[in-house]
Amino acid sequence: MRILVLGGDGFCGWPTVLHLATRGHTVAIVDNLIRRQWDIELGTHSITPIAPITERIATWQALTGQAIPFYDGDLQDYDFVSKVFREFQPESIVHFAEQRSAPYSMIDRAHAVFTQVNNIVGTLNVLYAIREFTPDAHLVKLGTMGEYGTPNIDIEEGYLEIEHNGRRDVMIYPKNPPSFYHLSKVHDSHNIFFACRIWGLRATDLNQGIVYNVVTDECERDARLWNRYDYDGVFGTALNRFCAEAVSGYPLTVHGKGGQTRGFIDIRDTVRCIELAALNPAEPGEMRVYNQFTEQWSVLQLAELVQRVAREMGMAVEMSHVENPRVEREEHYYQAKHTKLIDLGLEPHLLTDETIRVLLEKAAAHRDRINTADFPALVRWK
């Protein structure tokens, strides 16, 4: 297939590009490289060194003979978006190109406004470009499980059948997003649903859980292909932070009680889910929703797992409960359905001691790039 990956330089986008290319798809990247600029803004960086995008692409071509076209531009520029769609004529569009950090969106008014304008306008431009230039193409859009929040009922895959005053209907599952970032994803979902309904577009909305691991077969072929390993309080995940803290001799900082439970997925499963969605497109006029995660963990369970594996590796690791900067329930019911991608053939990689060991070893190998001042979560929701 001809697959256009929007945000192909990012944490999910880059390994997806290589995965798709390895499996014979013709892949092109669209990215404005702003994620690298946010590192400069925040004064932090990935634990693993990240090569420039031109070096990444040249390295891949040298290893495989596969050329990957790169379009450098912003999705908010419709002239740019139009040019890309006219030239590449994608059959499938994989859309990662959004500001994806909840804490970043909560820094202040300017960051909240930027997040929503960037994400919502960019997605709207993509929808209009599909309609105008490639109306039969299939949009594979990365959503987030955070759109649902933590309801006290089971989370279905996108839609909920309800009965009210003796009548029944199927509606988009109610949303209760916990940040301005997550709100932008909810707006995206509704805009995509509307565009499919009125224009007959086809889309798959992938509500992804928190992604862990930084290793895929393709990214490990050469150090210049390595993926991001973010650990800081704005773009880093709790699991990455725990691993970085463990190798730095810093107590594992559990926010609040640590009962916050979420869905999780290995990056190796993320790239496979993207391909499965692309190979099995939605029907015209349909927006499918898949919950893209493979298991559920609480923050405290993750900390205990990292602590145990790190101690087995000879590290003296303690744990500390710190104030939770977010406004969220720390103990709650959480049960989300996630069967549709399994039905398409996904064979999950579950979080194991070995995965934690690899993450700890990678962090330890680049311990000099870890700044303990980046561990605390300085962004407050209130």
Describe this structure in words.
It is a single chain. With 382 residues, the protein is of the alpha/beta class. The chain has one domain (2-374): NAD(P)-binding Rossmann-like Domain (Rossmann fold), CATH 3.40.50. The chain has twelve helices and 14 strands. Helix 1 links the parallel strand 1 (2-6) and strand 2. Helix 1 packs across helix 9, helix 6 packs parallel to helix 7 (180-199) and helix 8 (238-247) runs parallel beside helix 10. The chain starts with a strand and ends in a 17-residue tail after the last helix.
Q: Please, how many domains?
A: 1
The computed structural class is alpha/beta
Gyration radius, rounded: 20 Å
Give me the CATH architecture, please: 3-Layer(aba) Sandwich
Strand content: 15-25%
Please give the share of residues in helix. Answer: 25-40%
Low-confidence runs: none
Overall pLDDT level:
98
- Strand order in space, largest sheet: 3-2-1-4-5-8-12
Instruction: Tally the beta strands.
Output: 14
Main sheet overview: 7 strands, parallel
What is the name of the CATH class? Answer: Alpha Beta
N-end to C-end Cα span: 46 Å
Apparent shape: globular
Q: H/E order of the elements?
A: EHEHHEHEHHEEEHEEHEEHEEHEHH
What's the CATH H-level superfamily name? NAD(P)-binding Rossmann-like Domain
Number of helices: 12
Give the CATH topology. Rossmann fold
